[in-house]
Amino acid sequence: MRKTILLLVTAMLAFSCATAPSIPQIIFDTDQGNDVDDVLALDVLNKYVDEGKVDLLAILLNKEGRGPVSFVDLMQTFYGHPEVPIGKISDGRFDPNDKSVNYAQYVADLKDESGAPLFARSVEDPDALEESYLLYRKVLAGAKDKSVTIVSVGFFTNLKRLYDSPGDAISPLSGRELVSKKVKELVVVAGVFSNPELHEYNVYVDIPSAKTILEEWPTPVVVSPWELGINVQYPGANIDTDLSWAGRHPLAEAYKCYLPMPYDRPMWDDTAVVFAAGETDWFTVSPYGSIEVTDEGSTLFHEDPSGTRRYLSVTPEQAAALRDYLVAKIAAKPACYSE
User: How far is residue 71's CA from residue 241's CA, in Å, rounded to a whole number?
Assistant: First the structure.
Protein backbone atom coordinates (compact mmCIF):
# COMPACT_ATOMS: atom_id res chain seq x y z
CA MET A 1 0.00 0.00 0.00
CA ARG A 2 2.76 2.45 0.99
CA LYS A 3 4.56 1.70 -2.27
CA THR A 4 1.38 2.30 -4.26
CA ILE A 5 0.75 5.65 -2.49
CA LEU A 6 4.36 6.69 -3.12
CA LEU A 7 4.04 5.90 -6.81
CA LEU A 8 0.78 7.87 -7.02
CA VAL A 9 2.31 10.92 -5.30
CA THR A 10 5.35 10.75 -7.57
CA ALA A 11 3.12 10.54 -10.63
CA MET A 12 1.03 13.51 -9.44
CA LEU A 13 4.11 15.62 -8.83
CA ALA A 14 5.51 14.77 -12.23
CA PHE A 15 2.20 15.65 -13.86
CA SER A 16 1.92 18.99 -12.03
CA CYS A 17 5.50 19.92 -12.97
CA ALA A 18 4.93 18.96 -16.56
CA THR A 19 1.71 20.96 -16.90
CA ALA A 20 2.51 23.99 -14.74
CA PRO A 21 2.37 27.11 -16.91
CA SER A 22 5.66 28.97 -17.24
CA ILE A 23 5.73 32.67 -16.43
CA PRO A 24 6.54 35.16 -19.21
CA GLN A 25 10.26 35.50 -19.94
CA ILE A 26 10.62 39.21 -20.70
CA ILE A 27 13.29 41.42 -22.27
CA PHE A 28 12.50 45.11 -21.70
CA ASP A 29 13.71 47.57 -24.37
CA THR A 30 13.33 51.18 -23.18
CA ASP A 31 14.27 54.81 -23.86
CA GLN A 32 14.55 55.86 -20.21
CA GLY A 33 15.05 59.62 -20.00
CA ASN A 34 12.70 60.67 -22.81
CA ASP A 35 9.28 60.26 -21.16
CA VAL A 36 8.50 59.44 -17.56
CA ASP A 37 6.04 56.68 -18.45
CA ASP A 38 9.11 54.47 -18.96
CA VAL A 39 9.84 54.81 -15.23
CA LEU A 40 6.27 53.91 -14.31
CA ALA A 41 6.54 50.87 -16.57
CA LEU A 42 9.82 49.78 -14.98
CA ASP A 43 8.21 50.08 -11.54
CA VAL A 44 5.32 47.83 -12.61
CA LEU A 45 7.68 45.35 -14.24
CA ASN A 46 9.72 45.02 -11.04
CA LYS A 47 6.53 44.52 -9.04
CA TYR A 48 5.62 41.65 -11.38
CA VAL A 49 9.04 40.15 -10.74
CA ASP A 50 8.36 40.44 -6.99
CA GLU A 51 5.04 38.64 -7.46
CA GLY A 52 6.59 35.83 -9.49
CA LYS A 53 4.50 36.76 -12.54
CA VAL A 54 7.42 37.42 -14.89
CA ASP A 55 11.08 36.58 -15.25
CA LEU A 56 12.98 39.72 -16.29
CA LEU A 57 15.87 38.55 -18.49
CA ALA A 58 17.42 41.90 -19.43
CA ILE A 59 16.82 45.65 -19.71
CA LEU A 60 18.09 47.24 -22.91
CA LEU A 61 18.52 50.97 -23.47
CA ASN A 62 17.71 52.51 -26.85
CA LYS A 63 18.61 56.02 -25.66
CA GLU A 64 22.30 56.96 -25.62
CA GLY A 65 24.36 58.21 -22.71
CA ARG A 66 25.56 57.27 -19.25
CA GLY A 67 22.51 58.87 -17.62
CA PRO A 68 19.89 56.38 -18.87
CA VAL A 69 22.14 53.41 -18.00
CA SER A 70 22.90 54.78 -14.53
CA PHE A 71 19.23 55.50 -13.96
CA VAL A 72 18.14 51.96 -14.83
CA ASP A 73 20.94 50.64 -12.61
CA LEU A 74 19.86 52.72 -9.60
CA MET A 75 16.22 51.77 -10.18
CA GLN A 76 17.09 48.06 -10.22
CA THR A 77 19.23 48.49 -7.11
CA PHE A 78 16.42 50.39 -5.37
CA TYR A 79 13.89 47.68 -6.26
CA GLY A 80 16.21 44.90 -5.17
CA HIS A 81 16.90 43.36 -8.59
CA PRO A 82 20.42 44.52 -9.53
CA GLU A 83 21.19 41.11 -11.04
CA VAL A 84 19.22 41.90 -14.21
CA PRO A 85 21.73 42.61 -17.01
CA ILE A 86 21.59 46.02 -18.70
CA GLY A 87 22.55 46.85 -22.29
CA LYS A 88 23.54 50.23 -23.69
CA ILE A 89 23.27 51.73 -27.17
CA SER A 90 25.91 53.68 -29.06
CA ASP A 91 25.30 55.83 -32.12
CA GLY A 92 21.55 55.45 -31.95
CA ARG A 93 18.94 57.51 -33.75
CA PHE A 94 18.01 59.81 -30.87
CA ASP A 95 19.76 63.20 -31.05
CA PRO A 96 22.22 63.32 -28.11
CA ASN A 97 22.12 67.14 -28.33
CA ASP A 98 18.37 67.25 -27.81
CA LYS A 99 17.55 69.97 -25.27
CA SER A 100 14.47 68.32 -23.76
CA VAL A 101 14.53 67.32 -20.10
CA ASN A 102 16.50 64.13 -19.43
CA TYR A 103 15.15 63.01 -16.07
CA ALA A 104 17.44 59.95 -16.12
CA GLN A 105 20.57 62.10 -16.07
CA TYR A 106 19.03 64.41 -13.47
CA VAL A 107 18.21 61.62 -11.01
CA ALA A 108 21.54 59.88 -11.60
CA ASP A 109 23.31 63.15 -10.67
CA LEU A 110 21.41 63.73 -7.40
CA LYS A 111 23.61 63.82 -4.29
CA ASP A 112 22.94 63.36 -0.59
CA GLU A 113 24.11 65.73 2.17
CA SER A 114 27.61 64.23 2.11
CA GLY A 115 27.99 64.68 -1.64
CA ALA A 116 27.62 60.97 -2.42
CA PRO A 117 25.10 59.72 -5.01
CA LEU A 118 21.60 59.92 -3.51
CA PHE A 119 20.64 56.50 -4.86
CA ALA A 120 22.88 53.43 -4.65
CA ARG A 121 23.84 51.61 -7.81
CA SER A 122 25.48 48.33 -8.78
CA VAL A 123 27.16 48.89 -12.17
CA GLU A 124 30.74 50.07 -11.71
CA ASP A 125 31.29 51.36 -15.24
CA PRO A 126 28.26 52.08 -17.48
CA ASP A 127 30.58 52.49 -20.47
CA ALA A 128 31.74 48.88 -20.11
CA LEU A 129 28.28 47.40 -20.64
CA GLU A 130 27.46 45.40 -23.76
CA GLU A 131 25.67 46.92 -26.69
CA SER A 132 21.96 46.20 -26.44
CA TYR A 133 21.73 44.19 -29.65
CA LEU A 134 24.59 41.94 -28.52
CA LEU A 135 22.92 41.38 -25.15
CA TYR A 136 19.75 40.56 -27.07
CA ARG A 137 21.71 37.89 -28.96
CA LYS A 138 23.25 36.47 -25.78
CA VAL A 139 19.94 36.24 -23.90
CA LEU A 140 18.06 34.77 -26.85
CA ALA A 141 20.80 32.21 -27.58
CA GLY A 142 20.48 30.87 -24.03
CA ALA A 143 16.67 30.81 -23.98
CA LYS A 144 14.28 27.97 -24.71
CA ASP A 145 12.59 27.96 -28.08
CA LYS A 146 9.53 30.25 -28.39
CA SER A 147 9.88 31.33 -24.75
CA VAL A 148 10.83 35.03 -24.82
CA THR A 149 8.48 37.99 -24.92
CA ILE A 150 10.15 41.24 -25.96
CA VAL A 151 8.53 44.42 -24.63
CA SER A 152 9.78 47.42 -26.62
CA VAL A 153 8.56 50.80 -25.35
CA GLY A 154 11.00 53.09 -27.17
CA PHE A 155 12.63 53.33 -30.56
CA PHE A 156 13.03 50.35 -32.90
CA THR A 157 16.79 50.76 -33.36
CA ASN A 158 17.88 47.91 -31.07
CA LEU A 159 15.37 45.54 -32.63
CA LYS A 160 16.57 46.41 -36.14
CA ARG A 161 20.22 45.88 -35.13
CA LEU A 162 19.31 42.52 -33.62
CA TYR A 163 17.26 41.59 -36.70
CA ASP A 164 20.14 42.46 -39.07
CA SER A 165 22.91 40.90 -36.97
CA PRO A 166 24.91 38.02 -38.50
CA GLY A 167 25.92 34.80 -36.81
CA ASP A 168 28.84 35.23 -34.45
CA ALA A 169 30.63 33.70 -31.46
CA ILE A 170 27.42 34.08 -29.43
CA SER A 171 25.33 32.04 -31.87
CA PRO A 172 25.78 30.84 -35.45
CA LEU A 173 22.22 31.98 -36.13
CA SER A 174 21.49 35.34 -37.70
CA GLY A 175 19.36 37.80 -35.76
CA ARG A 176 16.26 36.96 -37.78
CA GLU A 177 16.87 33.25 -37.21
CA LEU A 178 17.37 33.77 -33.46
CA VAL A 179 14.15 35.76 -33.26
CA SER A 180 12.20 33.15 -35.22
CA LYS A 181 13.52 30.36 -33.01
CA LYS A 182 13.46 31.95 -29.54
CA VAL A 183 10.87 34.75 -29.44
CA LYS A 184 7.26 33.98 -28.62
CA GLU A 185 5.84 37.48 -29.08
CA LEU A 186 6.87 41.11 -29.53
CA VAL A 187 4.82 43.71 -27.63
CA VAL A 188 5.52 47.31 -28.65
CA VAL A 189 4.34 50.82 -27.82
CA ALA A 190 4.03 52.45 -31.21
CA GLY A 191 1.80 53.93 -33.83
CA VAL A 192 -1.50 55.73 -34.21
CA PHE A 193 -4.30 53.80 -35.90
CA SER A 194 -7.13 56.31 -35.48
CA ASN A 195 -5.57 59.04 -37.63
CA PRO A 196 -3.10 58.32 -40.46
CA GLU A 197 -1.97 61.96 -40.39
CA LEU A 198 -0.45 61.54 -36.90
CA HIS A 199 3.11 60.21 -36.55
CA GLU A 200 3.80 58.53 -33.22
CA TYR A 201 7.14 59.40 -31.59
CA ASN A 202 8.67 55.93 -31.23
CA VAL A 203 8.07 55.31 -34.92
CA TYR A 204 9.05 58.79 -36.11
CA VAL A 205 12.50 58.83 -34.43
CA ASP A 206 13.62 55.81 -36.50
CA ILE A 207 11.14 55.27 -39.32
CA PRO A 208 13.28 52.81 -41.33
CA SER A 209 13.74 50.52 -38.31
CA ALA A 210 10.07 50.76 -37.34
CA LYS A 211 9.07 49.87 -40.91
CA THR A 212 11.28 46.78 -40.97
CA ILE A 213 10.18 45.50 -37.56
CA LEU A 214 6.44 46.19 -37.82
CA GLU A 215 6.22 44.84 -41.36
CA GLU A 216 8.78 41.99 -41.43
CA TRP A 217 9.37 40.75 -37.85
CA PRO A 218 8.84 36.97 -38.01
CA THR A 219 6.83 36.43 -34.79
CA PRO A 220 3.44 37.68 -33.64
CA VAL A 221 3.40 41.39 -32.76
CA VAL A 222 0.99 43.19 -30.41
CA VAL A 223 0.93 46.99 -30.55
CA SER A 224 -0.20 49.29 -27.75
CA PRO A 225 -0.84 52.49 -29.71
CA TRP A 226 -0.82 56.18 -28.80
CA GLU A 227 -4.62 56.23 -28.40
CA LEU A 228 -4.56 53.68 -25.58
CA GLY A 229 -2.12 55.48 -23.29
CA ILE A 230 -3.92 58.77 -23.73
CA ASN A 231 -6.96 57.16 -22.10
CA VAL A 232 -5.03 55.72 -19.12
CA GLN A 233 -3.26 58.51 -17.24
CA TYR A 234 -1.30 58.49 -14.00
CA PRO A 235 -2.52 61.18 -11.56
CA GLY A 236 0.50 63.31 -10.69
CA ALA A 237 -1.12 64.41 -7.45
CA ASN A 238 -0.50 60.86 -6.16
CA ILE A 239 3.28 61.12 -6.40
CA ASP A 240 3.86 62.70 -3.00
CA THR A 241 1.19 60.75 -1.13
CA ASP A 242 1.61 57.27 -2.63
CA LEU A 243 5.42 57.18 -2.61
CA SER A 244 6.10 59.01 0.65
CA TRP A 245 7.05 55.73 2.37
CA ALA A 246 10.46 55.91 0.63
CA GLY A 247 11.45 59.43 1.66
CA ARG A 248 13.32 60.04 -1.63
CA HIS A 249 12.05 57.74 -4.39
CA PRO A 250 13.75 57.65 -7.83
CA LEU A 251 10.38 57.39 -9.59
CA ALA A 252 9.08 60.43 -7.72
CA GLU A 253 12.26 62.42 -8.41
CA ALA A 254 12.04 61.59 -12.12
CA TYR A 255 8.36 62.47 -12.32
CA LYS A 256 8.88 65.84 -10.62
CA CYS A 257 11.80 66.65 -12.90
CA TYR A 258 10.09 65.81 -16.17
CA LEU A 259 7.34 68.48 -16.21
CA PRO A 260 6.13 71.21 -13.82
CA MET A 261 4.01 69.66 -11.09
CA PRO A 262 1.28 68.67 -10.75
CA TYR A 263 0.47 66.99 -14.05
CA ASP A 264 -1.14 63.75 -15.18
CA ARG A 265 0.81 61.61 -17.65
CA PRO A 266 -0.40 58.97 -20.12
CA MET A 267 0.77 55.49 -19.19
CA TRP A 268 1.66 54.28 -22.67
CA ASP A 269 4.50 51.98 -21.64
CA ASP A 270 2.75 50.54 -18.60
CA THR A 271 0.03 49.12 -20.82
CA ALA A 272 2.53 47.07 -22.82
CA VAL A 273 4.07 45.66 -19.63
CA VAL A 274 0.67 44.70 -18.23
CA PHE A 275 -0.34 42.90 -21.42
CA ALA A 276 3.01 41.11 -21.76
CA ALA A 277 2.74 39.89 -18.17
CA GLY A 278 -0.44 38.03 -19.11
CA GLU A 279 -2.93 40.51 -17.63
CA THR A 280 -4.88 40.60 -20.88
CA ASP A 281 -8.41 41.06 -19.53
CA TRP A 282 -7.84 44.81 -19.16
CA PHE A 283 -7.76 45.20 -22.95
CA THR A 284 -9.74 44.80 -26.14
CA VAL A 285 -7.62 43.07 -28.76
CA SER A 286 -8.12 43.70 -32.48
CA PRO A 287 -8.51 40.99 -35.11
CA TYR A 288 -5.32 39.79 -36.79
CA GLY A 289 -3.86 41.74 -39.67
CA SER A 290 -0.75 43.46 -40.99
CA ILE A 291 0.80 46.86 -40.28
CA GLU A 292 2.17 49.22 -42.90
CA VAL A 293 4.57 52.03 -41.99
CA THR A 294 4.68 54.86 -44.51
CA ASP A 295 7.81 56.82 -45.37
CA GLU A 296 6.39 59.72 -43.35
CA GLY A 297 5.88 57.60 -40.23
CA SER A 298 2.17 56.83 -40.36
CA THR A 299 1.02 53.40 -39.20
CA LEU A 300 -1.80 51.71 -41.12
CA PHE A 301 -3.52 48.53 -39.95
CA HIS A 302 -4.94 46.15 -42.56
CA GLU A 303 -7.21 43.44 -41.19
CA ASP A 304 -6.30 39.98 -42.47
CA PRO A 305 -7.16 36.64 -40.79
CA SER A 306 -3.81 35.24 -41.95
CA GLY A 307 -1.86 38.14 -40.44
CA THR A 308 0.24 38.09 -37.25
CA ARG A 309 -0.25 41.66 -36.04
CA ARG A 310 -2.81 42.90 -33.53
CA TYR A 311 -3.31 46.13 -31.61
CA LEU A 312 -4.84 46.96 -28.24
CA SER A 313 -7.58 49.35 -27.25
CA VAL A 314 -9.67 50.01 -24.13
CA THR A 315 -13.29 50.79 -23.50
CA PRO A 316 -14.00 53.63 -21.05
CA GLU A 317 -14.71 51.01 -18.39
CA GLN A 318 -11.47 49.15 -19.10
CA ALA A 319 -9.50 52.41 -19.07
CA ALA A 320 -10.83 53.40 -15.65
CA ALA A 321 -10.23 49.96 -14.17
CA LEU A 322 -6.73 49.73 -15.68
CA ARG A 323 -5.83 53.17 -14.33
CA ASP A 324 -6.93 52.24 -10.81
CA TYR A 325 -5.05 48.96 -11.04
CA LEU A 326 -1.82 50.64 -12.10
CA VAL A 327 -2.07 53.45 -9.54
CA ALA A 328 -2.45 50.89 -6.74
CA LYS A 329 0.46 48.79 -8.03
CA ILE A 330 2.78 51.80 -8.35
CA ALA A 331 1.91 52.88 -4.79
CA ALA A 332 2.92 49.50 -3.33
CA LYS A 333 6.29 49.09 -1.65
CA PRO A 334 8.59 46.72 -3.60
CA ALA A 335 8.98 43.35 -1.92
CA CYS A 336 12.78 43.54 -2.06
CA TYR A 337 13.08 47.18 -0.98
CA SER A 338 15.09 47.81 2.18
CA GLU A 339 15.80 51.18 3.79
Answer: 23
